[in-house]
């Protein structure tokens, strides 16, 4: 899967071009009277191949350009964007951003991040691994993935397998003199399969996402995992309404951490629309829990030496001994709150939840009798109140052993209680996301079923 063609890597030359565009835009903004300006230019390209039932369904080459400009006239802000990098379009976009700024109201918190916070160093984070896979090679790989899954007895149909290779080139700059280049790749393999028995049809999937194609597991494992997960769902039952402990599989558990991140992010805080308002320095998780941000992980899904405003990222704690140590802030939200940016404009960078020592089998033993959730659906989560109610499927567990699959149930609680009632974190960390988390065992939730 890491076989490369003789295709020449022109990324440096393209970054030079984007850098020239950004420098030209900043000059144009100054000439137009802007007191501050920031610009981002990018080229997003890739290949996406889909196969289904042994046939090619899609072959898609993508190449998208974008240019986003923000100007400040004092405390007035204007933004405009374009997908055309020709000089005439760039000039028009600058004019549009300036015109918008002249007619907006002053906002005392607007403006660039502080100049002394700009990232001055860009260490190599090993994020650039072009996968020059040809359409023919991608088709062969997709068929291999799907064939492996379809070969399992009991698989009755397929929603297909996909192969994606992606590259992003980006340059970000502002009138503080900050100008930074980024080259990142992200590749994905996936497969979704169906099985059917007398109780009906079931569907499940598996995928792998990596920076470098050499990090993919054997293609057949992806099809096999999709088939195994699908077959395990056959014979799914409903549960009667009850209260019980719930174990969230790693790929679902990271969503619980995502809700926490949203609740301590600047926008929710200054709007007072979060149940964790004014919680810095307070205990919100059990003593054994630690959550840290690590922006400099090699090949990490969220690695970067600067945020969307150019502010340098740093290794830092978010939760220590169960206590919230800081918020997640851009320069704007920080000013609204009378605080300082945490280098999180645009989001977080590699969140690591300290794993426990128990693998999944041991976590099931710790669960005892309760629900093992492998999939959730619906949008029933309120960051304002913390109320949590989502459709779920997974497995009913008794005495630490899976006894049968379950579906069409609703799990409900409040995030504040769920976080307080976390009993254990597994060692089974899912590496496919910028939120690195093992399975999470919550002591008690309500299950609404038949």
Give an overview of the whole structure.
- The chain has 450 residues and is α+β, with helices and mostly antiparallel strands.
- It has 2 domains: 11-231, 2-Layer Sandwich (PmbA/TldD fold), CATH 3.30.2290; 236-450, no CATH class.
- The chain is 24% helix and 36% strand.
- The chain is built from 9 helices and 17 strands.
- Strands 3-2-1-4-5-6 form a 6-stranded antiparallel beta sheet.
- Helix 3 runs parallel beside helix 4.
- The chain is globular, with a radius of gyration of 24 Å.
- The two termini are 47 Å apart.
- 39% of the residues are buried.
- Residues 1-6 have low confidence and may be disordered.
Order of helices and strands: HEEEHHEEEHEHHEEEHEHEEEHEEE
Named CATH architecture of the largest domain: 2-Layer Sandwich
Q: Can you give the helix content as a percent range? A: 10-25%
Class derived from helix and strand content: alpha+beta
Domain Metalloprotease TldD/E central: 129-234
Domain Metalloprotease TldD/E C-terminal: 242-449
GO biological process, one term: proteolysis
GO molecular function: metallopeptidase activity
Characterize this entry briefly.
This protein has 450 residues and is an alpha+beta fold. The protein is 24% helix and 36% strand. It has a six-stranded antiparallel beta sheet with strand order 3-2-1-4-5-6. It has a five-stranded mixed β-barrel with strand order 7-12-13-14-17. Strands 10-9-8-11-16 form a five-stranded mixed beta sheet, with helices on one face.
